[in-house]
Amino acid sequence: MSEITLTKIDRALFILEDQESVEAVEGVRRGSIITCKFTRNRHPVYHRKFFALLNTGYEAWEPDPVDLPEGVSACVKRFEAFRKGVIIAAGHYEASYVLRPDGSTAVELTAKSISFGSMGQSEFERVYSDVANVLLEKILTNYTRDDLDEVVDRILGMV
Length: 159
Known about the structure:
Layout: E1 6-10, E2 13-16, H1 19-25, H2 44-60, H3 79-89, E3 93-99, E4 105-111, H4 121-138, H5 145-155
Helix pairs in contact: 2-4, 2-5
């Protein structure tokens, strides 16, 4: 089964969006009937805007020094851990109980995926807004929401 990407250009007319989609339908003869399932993807600019928001917070973030366990000499600042932590702090996570080998249990929080197929535009906008609020409250405390929006737009070349 192949997945194709289409762009609607008229009331009932779509064009193939990329080379992979063109290759996927090359063997389909004129008059053939095919079945497609489709999802409405967010516009990629919103995805880029979210990562510009995260990068703004990440660059300003200085982790608090912590007591490191014996044998650990330094704590490493990692973007992926930051991204997941901010999404969880914003309240967008799934919780599950994990059974450990010693028989104890723990709650594990997993940040919700922001991939195109994982959530629609309205849920994505809530995540974006909630993450912005966390960044403003915890990291970018000298920013207003307007300041943050302006920085993100400047990163994207929108101003």
